[in-house]
Each structure stands twice: as structure tokens, then as C-alpha cells.
Write a structure and sequence with these properties.
By secondary structure, this protein is an alpha+beta fold. It has five domains: 118 residues, Glutathione S-transferase Yfyf (Class Pi), Chain A, domain 2; 72 residues, Glutaredoxin (3-Layer(aba) Sandwich), CATH 3.40.30.10; 110 residues, Up-down Bundle (Glutathione S-transferase Yfyf (Class Pi), Chain A, domain 2); 75 residues, Glutaredoxin, CATH 3.40.30.10; 92 residues, Glutathione S-transferase Yfyf (Class Pi), Chain A, domain 2. It is built from 18 helices and ten strands. Helix 10 packs across helix 12. It is globular. The termini are far apart. It holds the Pfam family GST_C_3. It comes from Cinara cedri.
Length: 561
């Protein structure tokens, strides 16, 4: 790619005009979006402050680029002298701006945005507490509220023929980006894609979004949506792979959540390989390939065999596409045989996904195998017998949001709660699909799993799943981020070694938890004390139960408030 003066980033206009120098680009774009001040003097003030922020960035780059021997000395000099000096001055500037907690006047400008993205990144990387500077964290909150206002000014959202798409991705998450490309192609929509290596993503891009997960789908240069299954669900609703009913949607969600469970196990192996010696890494990889992986693949193979070589109801859905992406990921990082030898039904499915020519075929008409009995739709009624099986353990899935939704629907149910020790009882775990610790049993026969998918299905029967596809997306995205918080919580409190466990728990309570809660708080503050458009949804229910769960496990009652 041609880069003027070998600089990046580069802004390409109409596929022809290339402009460079990030500050100049920001200044130009902000002048088009009312973010460059109300007059020439305000524009000067913004320029002046941003240049000082850029000076700070240069000092940071000096440290980051230093040779190993000089690095520690430069780090101490930067964190003890230069960084505090800059931050104190920035804090004083903001303090003198009439209690607005912004750099210039009383509204967000690109100086505030630049500060929140660049300086906050530096303080996070250097592990500096920005909250010791009273006014600076408030800038980040106001910028985030501004971004939310731009995002959630769309109470609903409709895709049109003119809608522009861009996909941001990186190598590590290539597998979950492929289904997004597939669905955009299926919709016959062109899109741009920016592909970053892991360092470029981590340092330059992740702070520009609500949470640090790739891929990201950008719609009309403004609306950014993340969480790959949520993006797929949103796009599928506008493609030929649109589901027929809520039950079919649940089945897809449930299978995809199980695929993501498999993916998390693969990521664990990657991390063990990066952080440990070769013997430990090899032993963990062998255990995964010989025990955990076959367990997943056998169950997936049985599901696909039962459904005419598809995951759901004998027809092509985005769950099939998602699975093919996971298999690519598995092959890339573990050298597992991507031909899926021994799992013939899965092999057939993956080949079919790879061979579909989306440029020629957009209307799928795959028929159900006549010999198979498939539940194409299912309707819960008040006469349906419902039982919930759950495990009383810190790391177990939470049954409370499901119980809340059942009560809101006025559905009666029975509940069986097993002790944590019983988790290893074969007679119990045999009845738990994919070894899940929460199972929803319908009419004493049909067992369904994956709590998020169950919640979404139950919410779709009530008024708690949003009024339209856009609200449903907002709910999904928030709940996925809440689940990220839950995983961080489990990761930090489930160690056997007491010293390690205490250290990790403290790290979670002091760093990860406040980071998530601040972001969630800003969203709720913007939405009249709810998560989505000022009304109760199942995202609110899920969050309330999650925070209650964390409060009980940490023994800290403040999280109830």
C-alpha cells in the first residue's frame, strides 16, 4: 500500500485522495463534525492542548522503543517525572474550565476525545491510576457518554442499500470474523476491511471502543458494534439465513455458545503455550486433543447427524458458518486435522460451507431429510412442565435470570440444586449436554442448555427483548460484555493456591471490576437508569443477578449499590 511520507494512519477519500498526519486528519474531520470549537480562539486552544498531548506520546514512545538495558531507567524517569508533570498540568487546565470537566468550554471537542484515547492508553499500559487526578477521569466519562449518545440516538436502525460497512479484525480473531464476511456477502453488500497485527490492535485501536474485543463492524462510519456472535445474529436477520421463529433462534444461539466454549478451551492452550515451558505446554495440548476436543466434536457430530448434516432443523444457518470458522482456528493453533477425520457429518458440513459460492447463490433451499424427526418450532405454555438443574458453585452458571424471566411470564417450574461435589457424579453429568452446569428440562424430556441463549429465548416471549432488531442487538452486546466480566471474575477467584487466589482476587476487585463497572455506569446514566432506551430489558435483569453473584462471592456488599 502506498503511504505518503511512509506515515500511518492514512485517510483515503474516494479511493484516490490520501491524506496523512494523524493530528491534521483529526483536525480536518472535527471541523466537519462540530468538534473543533465555536470560534478561532477555541480552535487554537484545542490545537495547543492536543500538541501537548502529542508531546507526551513522543516521550512515551522513547521509552517504549528503548533497548532492554535502558528501558527500566527510562520507564522510571517517565512514570516518576514526565508523566505526572504532564497529567498535573492537564488536570489544572480542566479544573479551571468552569467545572465543565472538559478541556474547552462546555461541550466535548476533539481535544477531549484525543486525551481519552491516547493518554488513557498510556496510563493503562504504565499501570498509573488516573483517578489521583480529580478531573481527568471525568473527561473519559464525558467522551464515553458522547459516544453512547451518538450510538444510542438510534432507537431503531434499518439497513438500506446505501448503508456502508467496514470490518476491523486481527489475526487472532480471524475465525470469528469469517462468518461476518460470509453474511455480508450473502446480503450482497460490499464492505471494506482493515486487518491489524496484534500489537497494532492492542496499542492503537482497542481503547477507541467500548470493550477490547475484535472483530468490530462499523456501519456508516459511525455506529460500531462488537461481539462476533452478536454481529452475526444482527446480520443474519437481514440475510437469506434469517430464522423462522424464536425456537430456531434459540437452537442456533445454544450451538454457537457451545462452539465458543470450545474456542475458549483452545485459547487456554494458546496461553499455556505462551506462558510456560515446552513440557507443560505439550502436556496441556495433548490432554486437550485427546480428551476435551473429542468430547466436543462427538457431541457436535451427533447433533449434525441428527439434523441432516446441518446444526439446526436440516437447513443451512449461520451456526454452520460459525462452526467452520472455529475449525479453521483449531487447525491453525493446534495443528489438528482440519479434514475432521472420524467425524464424517462435521466434515461434510464444513466442506459445504467452504464450497458455497455466494456470488451465484443467495437463496438457500436445503430440504430436511424426511427420515429425521426435527422440532422445527416449539412453544412454551403455562401447562409446560419445566425443571431447572443447577450447581451451587461460584464458577457455575447463574439460574436467577432464567427464574426471573419465567416468573415474569407466570410460568411455574421446579428446581434441583446440586452441591459442587456432585458435579463429578457421572449419573448427574451424563444428563448435562456439553457438561454444562445449568440445564433447562422441558416436559421431563427435552434438555436445553446455554443460559444466555435460554434467557434470550424466554425474553423473546415477553417484552424484555427489545422492540426491534436494533434494541435486541444492544441488549445482546451488553450481555456479552457482562459475560466477559463474569469470566474475568471466575478466572480470578478459581485458583487452588491461596496466595495466588488472594492476589488475583485483589487484582480483579481493584482493576478489572471498576473498569467494567465504570463503563456500565456510563451506559445506564445515559439511558435513564436502564441499559437500553430507558426501559427494562433482560440485560438489566442479567446485570443485577451478576453483580449480586459477585457481591456474595467477594463478601463486599457495596456492589449491591
Amino acid at each position: 500500500m502506498y503511504l505518503p511520507f511512509e506515515h500511518n494512519p492514512v485517510l483515503i477519500i474516494n479511493e484516490e485522495i490520501r491524506i496523512t498526519q494523524s493530528l491534521a486528519i483529526c483536525r480536518y474531520l472535527s471541523s466537519l463534525s462540530n468538534l473543533n470549537g465555536n470560534n478561532d480562539w477555541e480552535a487554537y486552544l484545542i490545537d495547543s492542548y492536543v500538541e501537548s498531548m502529542y508531546d507526551l506520546k513522543r516521550e512515551f514512545i522513547k521509552y517504549d522503543d528503548a533497548a532492554a538495558k535502558a528501558k527500566m531507567e527510562l520507564k522510571n524517569q517517565f512514570t516518576d517525572i514526565q508523566l505526572p508533570n504532564f497529567l498535573k498540568k492537564f488536570n489544572n487546565i480542566v479544573a479551571k474550565n468552569n467545572n465543565n470537566n472538559l478541556f474547552v468550554n462546555n461541550k466535548v471537542t476533539w481535544a477531549d476525545i484525543y486525551f481519552s484515547k491516547i493518554v488513557e492508553s498510556i496510563t493503562m499500559i504504565m499501570n498509573i491510576d488516573l483517578y489521583q487526578y480529580t478531573h481527568l477521569p471525568l473527561i473519559t466519562k464525558k467522551v464515553y457518554a458522547y459516544e453512547l449518545e451518538r450510538l444510542q440516538s438510534h432507537e431503531t436502525f434499518e439497513l438500506t442499500d446505501e448503508t456502508k460497512f467496514e470490518v476491523l479484525s486481527n489475526e487472532q480473531n480471524e475465525d470469528v470474523t469469517k462468518p461476518i464476511r460470509f453474511l455480508l456477502n450473502d446480503m450482497q453488500r460490499s464492505f471494506n476491511e482493515s486487518f491489524y497485527d496484534d500489537f497494532a490492535w492492542d496499542f492503537n485501536l482497542q481503547k477507541s471502543r467500548q470493550y477490547a474485543n475484535t472483530p468490530v463492524l462499523i456501519i456508516d462510519y459511525e455506529i460500531k458494534i462488537n461481539q462476533s456472535p452478536v454481529i452475526c445474529r444482527f446480520l443474519a436477520a437481514h440475510s437469506s439465513l434469517k430464522v423462522n421463529n424464536d425456537w430456531e433462534a434459540y437452537l442456533i444461539d445454544s450451538h454457537v455458545d457451545s462452539m465458543l466454549d470450545l474456542r475458549r478451551e483452545i485459547i487456554k492452550i494458546i496461553k499455556i503455550n505462551d506462558e510456560n515451558d515446552e513440557k507443560i505446554a505439550l502436556k496441556s495440548k495433548e490432554r486437550f486433543l485427546q480428551t476435551q476436543l473429542p468430547n466436543f466434536l462427538k457431541k457436535f457430530n451427533n447433533i449434525v447427524a441428527f439434523n441432516g448434516n446441518y446444526f439446526v432443523n436440516g437447513k443451512f444457518t449461520w451456526a454452520d458458518v460459525f462452526f467452520a470458522g472455529i475449525i479453521n482456528f483449531l487447525h491453525h493453533f493446534t495443528e489438528f486435522d482440519a479434514s475432521l477425520k472420524g467425524y464424517e457429518n462435521l466434515s461434510t458440513l464444513v466442506k459445504r460451507v467452504r464450497n458455497i459460492d455466494l456470488s451465484l447463490q443467495h437463496n438457500y433451499d436445503y430440504k430436511t431429510n424426511g427420515e429425521i424427526t426435527i422440532i422445527e418450532a416449539f412453544e412454551l405454555t403455562r401447562t409446560t412442565k419445566i425443571e431447572i438443574l443447577s450447581i451451587n458453585a461460584i464458577t457455575a452458571d447463574m439460574p436467577q435470570p432464567i427464574k426471573y424471566l419465567l416468573n415474569s411470564l407466570v410460568f411455574s417450574f421446579d428446581e434441583t440444586i446440586y452441591d459442587n461435589k456432585e458435579l463429578w457424579n457421572d449419573s448427574i453429568t451424563k444428563g448435562m449436554p456439553f457438561g454444562q452446569t445449568l440445564v433447562f428440562i422441558i416436559n421431563k424430556q427435552m434438555r436445553i442448555t446455554q443460559p444466555i441463549a435460554i434467557c434470550r429465548y424466554l425474553a423473546s416471549l415477553s417484552t424484555l427483548n427489545g422492540a426491534n432488531d436494533w434494541e435486541a442487538y444492544l441488549i445482546d452486546s451488553l450481555v456479552e460484555s457482562m459475560n466477559d466480566l463474569k469470566r474475568e471474575f471466575i478466572k480470578h477467584i478459581s485458583k487452588d493456591d491461596d496466595k495466588t487466589s488472594m492476589k488475583l482476587a485483589q487484582e480483579f476487585i481493584e482493576i478489572q471490576l471498576p473498569c467494567f463497572l465504570n463503563k456500565f455506569h456510563n451506559i445506564v446514566a445515559h439511558n435513564n437508569e436502564f441499559f437500553v432506551n430507558g426501559k427494562l430489558t433482560w440485560a438489566d435483569v442479567y446485570f443485577a443477578e451478576l453483580v449480586n453473584h459477585i457481591a456474595l462471592c467477594t463478601g463486599d456488599d457495596k456492589y449491591h449499590t
